[in-house]
Amino acid sequence: MYKPVYIVVTPFFPSHKIWRGAFFFDFTRALARTGKYDVRVFVPRTSASECVDYEYNGVQVHTFFYKKFKGAVAPFVYAPGNRKRFMAAAERAKIDWGKVAIFHAHDIGLVPLSKNIKQRNPNIKILLHFHNGGQPFCLRCGRAGVIPVYSALHYIWHRHWFENVDLPVFVSKRQQSQFGRWYPDGYLGPTEDILKSAFLGRWIRPILLNPSYVLYNGIDKSLFNKLPKTGLSDYRKGAKFVIGDVANIIKTKDPMTLLRALALLKESNYPMNGWRCILVGSGEDVAKCNEFILGKGLGDIVEIIKEVDHTELPNIYKSLDLFVLPSWVEGFGCAYVEAAGCGVPIMGCKGISVEEAIASEEHDKWLFPLQDYKSLAEKIKWFYENRPRQTLARDFDIDKLMHEFIEYLSTLCPC
Asked: What is the 3-state secondary structure (H, E, C) of 127-152?
């Protein structure tokens, strides 16, 4: 008896050169470990020269050329061609559409690829997985995003495809509760310019959220656990207290709040001998952070390290005493639960989805207001002096989460 085919289409998946998208690798492996489906992975590439199929740690990855304008402007222009190229990639992968049960898109821009497959097999269920903490329909992408007409067109296009989705999947309850709003609280500003427009108002209608599912970003406990380090790299470098932050070094991840907190402690003559802070990542704000580090005399404490392979991350986490990610836009945040899985207490901002990772009775201990570096500095001091244990809200073992997800899918797609 054949296994039904589960197609995963994701814009990010790690390779031996690029490590972005590690969660999608963990997701795919956990899905395959259930034994329920024959899992196939497809990754769009915006450069034709990069469209080479490859294998990554036991997972075969099929690629196809996906054309789009910069800033995702007018996605409908290239949709027919992208569908054609995806179908060609599926043919090369010998996909039998009669055996396909699930088409799982990890970005709303990939849902239009499902038009042709529904024609081949109307029983296929379409899943759309929302990951980021921003507006789900990409209304403000690119410079044209400030134009109300452009935002409305984006809304109409994405709403049309969303209405063809059988199951929206969210990575947190907060993200799920905010879906359908123009913007989450405090993110990217108001949209009265759109909502008050008589011309545009006729096209706007509420989004009806059919049954949906919250699938937290779980962790592979064979990697992220409390066992001793396995690597030879020395990230502590003899320090007695190490703080870490693993994230893109960009404005919304807000590494500056952590750096300002450390600078405040230093300026107040708080004893920081033997302290070390590691920022792991890259991005547009690296130069800004380095300038601040030098200007505040933090060069002997703070080090910025480029991204590492997924398998090396546990060694970084296990070198830490405290993990701090002051991000203010997160769907959920893999790094929080990865660090916690390695036994490291985590700190983050109030009002974002990290609240769902920490037991509610401990929120005031570990969470601080958005961009409030003074509050963060006090919490770092409190932790350093007391070293309390942290209680998580639940177990984030990806295999357990996937088992629950598969059980739910069986009610949607009995196959």
From this structure: EEECCCCCCCCCCCCCHHHHCHHHHH
